[in-house]
Write a structure and sequence with these properties.
The complex is a heterodimer of chains A (387) and B (228). Chain A is mainly α. Helix content of chain A is 55%, strand content 1%. In chain A, helix 2 packs antiparallel against helix 3 and helix 7 runs parallel beside helix 10. The longest helix of chain A is centred in the middle third of the chain and has 31 residues. Chain B has one domain. Classes of the chains: A mainly alpha (387), B mainly alpha (228).
């Protein structure tokens, strides 16, 4: 297939992608896809070596090719997650517990597609032929679960986006944890020196607020209904939270350090955090902020379970548990057997040979899924209010 | 043919135009455009509105405290197609109705709601013979399609405090004039939800129309201690 030369050509490919993944366009008849840009508080670069200079309006204003490469890399990864999440969630329209939940899902997917559209708009408008190639590739990769089903090649770029969303608990945990990671990433980019990217972030963050609210509210309603056994709900936390931690990238990351030095990606709290960062630990700093937020939300969920009369509690997996990226990543030998960095879900070290069976014991089994299917069929597994 | 009240700039895009840049504000942005990234920018709003936006999270949180169970009970109850029973439950929210309206009125309103397409509330006029007040009809419309904001005396009072004399006037009767003012409010909300900063949008599972309206309702309530 030829490279899209004009934006309209990319839009045609976007429409073909929707069709190919089986997305029902009737669901979004009124939705208007458009690129949205919002002005920033400051037109001066806010951090890094270029601090105080004017932000870059166009790619030709970016002073170094390495920075242009880094920007394109950031945009590609951001865009890839947006399209992937639609691939993961699209089949849930058939099983929505209520009409409002269905509306929420449709809105989440529409906005994720708009975010992908936005990133491709930035690439197509500002990065020439390379940008056009990358924008096209966004629509060629597939979330791995789907890839396996359809026999297509090319998985999505990040781990969390190659995991299937099997049911609505997956949807709520995904929007709670993975979209929340998205919020952190967008906030980090929103301070950046490159205007086409940083001005994209405000409208995207505004839309993400609804996605996270949907996830958190859904989990609270599940906690209130007390029909899903806590040990089963806990398994969804084990499925998504470690991948959420991984999304922040490696520790001691030189990529993150350079992105900060160049002023293109800051800290999530760059507005309020005035102290100089430890640039070697930027990813870990953001991951810790994310972990703290998750802890607060998990406490709220446990409070809800307690109010509803439940004795068991949800446990937020430790940051060291079952990681694939960073200093806590489980090290494996050539045969794939774990050899180091093996801990239980509480972060307590465990013998490497026990690790894989232990992780399997925390995943949903076929029996669990059967049990869940029965609960879902009863229809009252989620409360009509969270309060 | 139902009355179309939506003004310019908020008419419903056709299905084709919903994904076609040639009919949206992205039109003509070839890669050689002089200002290549300008596609859509938020509209400008007046200073008092910006001040109000800064208080939206706190005001909306007060709104949730006051209406928490009731709102979610209704929103998660609604289904398609809208039935007279659902309409009855929806209009009891923030209820000014002392008793359940008769079945004919409810059926008339349920039928009108099915015909309304955002952002045009015009088809509600078909329910004018129901003798239901405008605020009740809008309540049912909102719960069927939450992009339509709620509209009653309290919201209108809050709106007047924020937007001054420019604000649409609330009229109690479900008639052409009342709906025209409501349509103005819908257009205003469209503008405001584009203009509000993400820093002032709470992480809640509600449409922005609801969040802004809820904040206005608290702003307009007499007991509110929050002043923007």
């Amino acid at each position: 297939m030829s490279i899209p030369n004009r934006w309209e050509e990319w839009v045609s490919e976007f429409e073909a992608w929707r069709n190919e993944i089986g997305f029902d366009d009737n669901l979004i008849q009124d939705y208007k896809f458009e690129a949205k840009y919002a002005p920033l508080d400051s037109d001066l670069i806010e951090f890094g070596d270029y601090k105080g200079q004017k932000k870059w309006k166009m790619t030709r204003d970016v002073p170094d090719q390495r920075i242009r490469d880094s920007l394109l890399h950031l945009i590609v990864y951001q865009g890839d997650t947006e399209f992937a999440s639609v691939e993961q969630q699209r089949h849930l329209v058939k099983t929505a517990p209520t009409d409002y939940d269905l509306k929420s899902l449709i809105r989440v997917m529409s906005e994720e597609m708009r975010h992908g559209w936005q990133m491709c708009h930035v690439m197509m408008q500002n990065f020439g032929r390379t940008g056009a190639i990358e924008a096209q590739k966004q629509l060629k990769r597939r979330s791995l679960g789907m890839q396996e089903r359809s026999g297509k090649s090319g998985a999505r770029l990040l781990g969390s986006f190659n995991v299937d969303c099997d049911d609505w608990i997956d949807f709520f945990t995904f929007t709670q944890f993975i979209d929340r990671d998205g919020k952190f990433q967008l906030k980090m980019l929103s301070h950046g020196a490159y205007l086409p990217l940083s001005e994209s972030m405000g409208p995207m963050l505004k839309e993400e607020a609804f996605h996270m609210g949907t996830g958190n509210n859904g989990l609270l309603r599940i906690g209130k209904a007390r029909k899903i056994p806590v040990p089963l709900l806990q398994k969804y936390f084990y499925k998504w939270v470690p991948t959420g931690y991984d999304l922040f990238g490696g520790d001691n990351s030189s990529t993150a350090e350079w992105a900060y030095v160049w002023g293109v990606k800051g800290r999530p709290d760059e507005w309020t955090e005035k102290s100089d960062p430890d640039k070697r630990e930027l990813n870990d700093y953001s991951r810790t902020c994310y972990h703290n937020e998750l802890k607060e939300l998990t406490d709220q969920l446990n409070k809800k379970i307690e109010e509803a009369g439940g004795d068991e509690r949800i446990h937020l997996p430790d940051m060291k548990f079952n990681r694939a990226i960073g200093k806590y990543a489980v090290k494996r030998d050539e045969a794939g057997r774990p050899v180091a960095n093996t801990t239980d879900a509480y972060g307590v070290p465990m013998a490497p040979e026990k690790f894989d069976p232990y992780v399997r014991s925390l995943a949903l089994t076929a029996q669990d899924k059967q049990q869940l299917a029965k609960i879902f069929a009863d229809g009252d597994w989620i409360a009509p209010t969270r309060f | 043919m139902p009355l179309r009240l939506a003004g310019r700039g908020v008419s419903r895009p056709s299905r084709k135009s919903s994904s076609s840049p040639s009919s949206s504000r992205t039109r003509g942005h070839s890669r050689r455009s002089k200002t290549p990234w300008i596609a859509s920018r938020p509209p400008k709003v007046e200073e008092p509105v910006l001040r109000f936006f800064a208080h939206v999270p706190a005001l909306f949180s007060m709104c949730l405290l006051a209406e928490k169970n009731d709102y979610e009970e209704v929103i998660y109850l609604m289904d398609r197609p809208v039935t007279p029973g659902m309409v009855a439950r929806a209009i009891s929210f923030r209820g000014d109705a002392k008793k359940r309206p008769d079945d004919h009125a409810l059926a008339l309103l349920a039928s009108a709601i099915q015909k309304a397409r955002y952002p045009d509330p015009g088809p509600l006029l078909l329910a004018s013979r129901s003798k239901l007040p405008l605020s009740a009809a809008v309540r049912a419309l909102h719960f069927a399609n939450p992009a339509f904001p709620l509209w009653d005396q309290g919201v209108a009072r809050g709106l007047r405090e924020v937007a001054g004399k420019q604000a649409p006037r609330f009229r109690a009767r479900l008639d052409r004039q009342g709906l025209a003012e409501y349509a103005r409010f819908v257009r205003l909300i469209v503008k405001w939800r584009e203009a509000i900063s993400f820093k002032h949008v709470p992480e809640e599972p509600y449409f922005l129309a609801r969040i802004i309206e809820g904040a206005l309702a608290v702003r307009g309530s007499r007991g509110s201690k929050v002043r923007t």
